[in-house]
């Protein structure tokens, strides 16, 4: 009896070591992306110039480029990627649907509607919008999520995963229609801002946006990481979760609220970047497996790398103009979504 137990323990340690190695590699990729992004742009900075400027030895122009333009945008893209990826991981875990993401439940559409209403009444880039947009986006996303949950809820069985998905698709379509109608009322400047936002552009590229987004992520990401066991239990279904002593409906509500807040805060400063919540969880699951204790941090790192790299490529691909980062993510995400859809049919 001792040999099988010993063999199991050795195997468990090897798996744990491999997963930790994966996390370290993802962290290294994120650091590499950060360095490359700091060096890349219309005005090139060599690695030596970047290193020297970081420690106070750069020229006034180099400091302006690095500290006022590039670093805030890079940090925002990292925070946005981690938030959207974790939100997608939660939605997939709660709905037990590998093709689910925040956009599928109407979360992104609700946040976008709130942003457009703000732009319509208060202008595109007022100072107060830096700190009020995350709250407005949260209100819009939260209202959409509540609407989806209420329509999907049944007194005899709660809100089943399949009803959440189907209701989310319907609510998303309705909100998108209202958004298009409101866009007609915008002037040229407002419409340009909204069009760029809907394409998924990291438009919040100064330190005020970092300060507006950072508290949300510092609170929500650690909270989500502590819910790894709850997500594992929900993956067993409501009956399995109840059998293990967990309240499936209560945990589902808490986790969906966290997913809504993460996505809303990210959408407020980055626009509607699609597919991050779909791609990052799948990539992370292939690397570390379905256990959320490792899946969640891997997912956050993968999402951060994905958005930061996409934004870097979008900045330099058609210089001196820029492409929205959401387009670059969609270039990868749309084919991958079709691949997953085809695979699910088999």
Protein model, in words:
There is one protein chain. This protein has helices at 2-39, 47-54, 60-95, 107-122, 129-152, 161-183, 188-198, 207-225, 228-234, 238-243, 248-270, 276-288, 292-316, 325-345, and strands at 153-154, 158-159. With 346 residues, the chain is an all-alpha fold. A two-stranded antiparallel sheet has the order 1-2. Helix 2 packs across helix 3 (60-95), helix 4 (107-122) packs across helix 5 and helix 4 (107-122) packs parallel to helix 6 (161-183).
Instruction: Report low-confidence residues grouped into runs of 5 or more.
Output: none
How large, in whole angstroms, is the Cα Rg? 21 Å
Main β-sheet description: 2 strands, antiparallel
**Averaged pLDDT:** 81
Please bin the fraction of helical residues. Answer: over 70%
Oligomeric state, counting identical vs distinct chains: single chain
Q: Which structural category fits the helices and strands?
A: mainly alpha
Q: What is shown here, in short?
A:
It contains 14 helices and 2 strands. The protein has 346 residues and is mainly alpha-helical.
Brief descriptors of the model:
single chain; about 350 residues; mainly alpha; 2 strands; about 80% helix
Per-chain topology:
Layout: H1 2-39, H2 47-54, H3 60-95, H4 107-122, H5 129-152, E1 153-154, E2 158-159, H6 161-183, H7 188-198, H8 207-225, H9 228-234, H10 238-243, H11 248-270, H12 276-288, H13 292-316, H14 325-345
Helix pairs in contact: 1-13, 2-3, 3-8, 3-11, 3-12, 3-13, 4-5, 4-6, 4-11, 5-6, 5-11, 8-11, 9-11, 9-13, 12-13, 13-14
């Amino acid at each position: 009896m001792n040999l099988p137990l010993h063999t199991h323990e050795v195997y468990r340690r090897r798996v744990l070591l491999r997963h930790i190695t994966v996390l370290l590699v993802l962290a290294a990729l994120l650091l590499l992306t950060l360095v490359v992004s700091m060096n890349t742009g219309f005005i090139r900075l060599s690695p030596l110039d970047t290193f020297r400027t970081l420690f106070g030895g750069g020229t006034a122009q180099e400091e302006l480029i690095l500290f006022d333009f590039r670093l805030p945008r890079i940090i925002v893209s990292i925070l946005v990627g981690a938030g959207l990826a974790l939100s997608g991981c939660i939605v997939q875990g709660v709905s037990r649907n590998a093709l689910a993401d925040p956009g599928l439940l109407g979360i992104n559409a609700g946040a976008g509607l709130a942003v457009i209403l703000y732009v319509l009444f208060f202008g595109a880039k007022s100072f107060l919008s830096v700190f009020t947009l995350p709250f407005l986006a949260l209100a819009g996303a939260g209202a959409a999520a509540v609407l989806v949950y209420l329509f999907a809820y049944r007194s005899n069985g709660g809100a089943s995963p399949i009803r959440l998905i189907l209701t989310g698709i319907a609510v998303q379509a309705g909100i998108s229609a209202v958004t298009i109608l409101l866009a007609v009322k915008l002037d040229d400047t407002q419409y340009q801002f909204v069009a760029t936002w809907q394409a998924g552009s990291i438009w919040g590229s100064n330190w005020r946006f970092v300060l507006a987004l950072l508290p949300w992520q510092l609170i929500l990401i650690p909270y989500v990481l502590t819910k790894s066991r709850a997500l594992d239990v929900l993956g067993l279904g409501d009956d399995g979760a109840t059998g293990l002593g967990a309240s499936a409906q209560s945990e589902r509500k808490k986790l969906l609220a966290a997913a809504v807040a993460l996505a809303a805060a990210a959408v407020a400063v980055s626009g509607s970047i699609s597919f991050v919540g779909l791609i990052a969880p799948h990539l992370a699951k292939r690397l570390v497996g379905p256990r959320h204790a490792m899946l969640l941090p891997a997912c956050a790192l993968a999402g951060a790398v994905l958005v930061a790299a996409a934004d870097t490529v979008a900045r330099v691909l058609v210089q001196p103009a820029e492409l929205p980062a959401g387009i670059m993510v969609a270039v990868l995400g749309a084919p991958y979504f079709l691949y997953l859809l085809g695979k699910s049919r088999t």
